[in-house]
UniProtKB/TrEMBL annotation:
Entry GO terms, CC: plasma membrane
Protein name: APCDD1 domain-containing protein
Organism domain of life: Eukaryota
InterPro entries: APCDD1, APCDD1_dom
Single GO term (MF): Wnt-protein binding
Region annotation (Disordered) ranges: 436-457
Length: 511
């Protein structure tokens, strides 16, 4: 049946529709998470998942070893958790972490900061002591547990005179036990204690807000091994927000020192480090890798603001063409699909990044977007849009793909085609020398990196390369002027965008 009717559905104001969306989604999420949302979970329950369907037809051999993933709520944190690579935070900042949680609820966290993106040149280390209290299952980020922390002490060791110089442009001249002019490399100084204000910590852009959202995943491999990962809250991409931001997504996980990937030379170095002996990571082999091919998520990914998805991304450098398939889910195991978004267009490779060495700048253009509603609520929501604004109104059905290109995107979702994004990509090899692709982190506020100044400085979880090339590859290119929909004015619009829209309007492109 061909669905071509154009009907006037202009009863009800736009804001009502938006409000409806918000309430609807709120209802969906609440219904989906059970009734104990606001209580501290007492019994631990386990959610389990298999690898997402995006991998099923991807011939990525290492993942064919069946892995089931469990995540306890509340999470068990005891032990030491370490970085598995040089981590890049927005800024950019280059960091390795080693966090130790004690049964007494005390924690000690070591953070080592570097001047370079390979973590070869340590600048300074922070020794953080505090106490953590798990609160309740997160209402916003399903599968996560909220926690409160109390910092008791932060110490700093500066590792070189050059690092001291750089700190002097950020830190006040004196902080608790530290007077910058008298700082000697290699010596521990107190930067914060409970009697002091947080001024000096903020000046460094430091906070431990990341422990406000916690998830521990255990991967059970069919051969009997297990890997445990600790996901802590994400760091806001806007520097001015980061010390106050309550995380709703995660950073790249730390791995348990006892149960980690093998081999993991970085884990061992980080595990053995101290504030006086920061880990100096080996230079990662310069990955002059080709980006050509199909890249997929390694797991169900969690995004700030209630989003769970897997990415399936293909680059064709010969034609400068790309296609991304983003499968969205309502649960952290990626087992309940909500909708699938397929976007495509072309791209241009730019210069090597001056901020993150080893990374390259890109510009992506989205010219086509298709959406498939995978469940009733989403289908209904899209079905109710006004004719000509978001695909064929009244034609949305579960499992039927709609092309949004003829309507230049989707007005309800603040999505305007064509659309341009400024990106940062970094290829790397994993511990088994298999290619990984890091793509830029999306702005935490749900906007899109549509200007060069908004280009990411940090990365999302890496995707892995599938062998083989896509079977279908048809992209219609057009050269319409790029335009970005400025998404509404009201708070309501923002809420909607937070819940659903941001998925589409800001994450829909390259992700
Ligand atoms: C995971 O895969 C196994 C084996 O195919 C299956 O028995 C199990 O039900 C799956 N679990 C989920 C949560 O899909
Ligand atoms: C979409 O709208 C049409 C026309 O109003 C209706 O017949 C159809 O059942 C709706 N579909 C869904 C999934 O709501």
């Amino acid at each position: 049946m061909k669905c071509v009717q154009v009907r006037n559905m202009s009863n009800g104001r736009f804001s009502h529709l938006l409000r409806g969306v918000w309430l609807l989604w709120q209802a969906v999420f609440v219904a989906g998470t059970g009734s104990k949302l606001w209580e501290v979970p007492t019994a631990s329950f386990t959610s389990s998942s298999n690898l997402s369907e995006s991998l099923q037809d991807c011939e990525y051999r290492h993942l064919q070893d069946r892995v089931s993933i469990t995540a306890d709520i509340p999470p068990r944190l005891d032990g030491t958790w370490v970085s598995t690579r040089c981590e890049v935070r927005p800024g950019p900042e280059f960091i390795t972490r080693s966090y130790n949680f004690h049964p007494s609820r005390h924690f000690t966290a070591l953070q080592h900061y570097y001047t370079d993106s390979s973590c070869e040149a340590p600048a300074y280390s922070l020794m953080i002591r505090g106490k953590l209290r798990l609160r309740q299952a997160s209402w916003i980020t399903r599968g996560g547990t909220e926690a409160e922390h109390h910092l008791s002490k932060v110490g700093i060791v500066v590792h070189s005179l050059a690092a001291k110089q750089r700190l002097s442009s950020r830190l006040p001249s004196s902080c608790v036990g530290l007077t910058l002019s008298r700082v000697m490399p290699g010596k521990l100084y107190e930067l914060y204690n409970t009697r002091a204000g947080r001024g000096c910590l903020s000046a460094l852009g430091f906070s431990m807000m990341e422990v406000g959202l916690i998830r521990v995943e255990t991967q059970h491999h069919s051969h009997g091994g297990k890997i445990q990962e600790l996901f802590l809250g994400d760091i806001h991409t806007d520097w001015t927000q980061r010390t106050e931001y309550r995380p709703t997504g995660y950073q790249q996980p730390l791995q348990n020192a006892m149960h980690h990937l093998h081999p993991c030379p970085v884990c061992a170095l980080v595990y053995r480090s101290s504030e006086h002996h920061p880990p100096v990571l080996p230079r990662s082999p310069a990955a002059s890798l080709s980006l050509a091919g199909r890249w997929v998520s390694q797991r169900c990914e969690t995004r700030p603001n209630v989003l769970f998805l897997t990415r399936d991304f293909t680059l064709n450098p010969d034609q400068h063409a790309w296609e991304g398939i983003y499968r969205h889910y309502s649960d952290p195991a990626c087992s309940q699909p909500t909708f699938t978004l397929r976007a495509s267009g072309h791209y241009a490779q730019g210069n090597p990044s001056a901020k993150v060495s080893g990374a390259t700048e890109f510009v992506f253009k989205v010219t086509e977007v298709r959406i498939t509603a995978m469940e009733g609520q989403t289908a209904k929501l899209l079905n109710g849009t006004r004719p000509g604004r978001c695909g064929l109104a009244g034609c949305w059905e579960i499992g039927v793909e709609q092309d949004l290109t003829p309507t230049d995107g989707c007005n309800l979702l603040g999505l305007k085609l064509p659309h341009k994004e400024y990106e940062l990509f970094k290829p790397e090899l994993d511990h088994r020398k298999h290619p990984l692709l890091f793509t830029g982190e999306r702005p935490t506020d749900g906007t899109s990196p549509d200007r060069p100044q908004r280009r990411p400085t940090s990365f999302q979880a890496p995707m892995v390369l599938c062998s083989g090339f896509p079977r279908h590859y048809g992209s219609v290119f057009n050269n319409k002027q790029v335009q970005l929909a400025t998404s509404g004015t009201g708070r309501l619009v923002q809420l909607v965008l937070l819940v659903l829209g941001s998925v589409l309007c800001s994450r829909f492109c390259v992700y």
